[in-house]
Amino acid sequence: MVKFLEGQTVGIDLGTTFSSLAQLNAEGQPISIVNADGSTTTPSIVLLGESGHVIVGPSPQRVAVEPPENVVDAIKRQMGNKNWFKEYLGKKLTPEFISALILKKLKQDCEQKIGPIANAVITVPYYFNDLRRKATQDAGRIAGLNVIDIINEPTAATLAYAWQRGELGRTDIGAKEKTIMVYDLGGGTFDVTVVRYTPTHFRVLATDGDVMLGGLDWTSRIVEHVAEQFRRKYSSDPLANPETKLLFTQECESAKRQLSAKSQTPVNLYHEGKNLTLSVTRGDFERMTADLLQRTRDTTELVLQQSGVDFGTLDEVVLVGGSTHMPAVFKMLEEVSGKKPSRELNPDEAVAQGASIHAAILEARETGGGSRMAQAVIKRLRSVTATDVNSHSLGIEITNPQTRVGKVNHVMIPKNTAIPQKVSQRFTTNVANQQRIRVRVLQGEVPDTSACAVIGDFQITNLPPNLPAGSPVEITYSYEADGRIKAEARELTGNRTAELEIVRDSGLSDAGLEAFEALAREYQVE
Question: Distance of alpha carbon 413 from its chain centroid, rounded?
Answer without folding.
Answer: 21
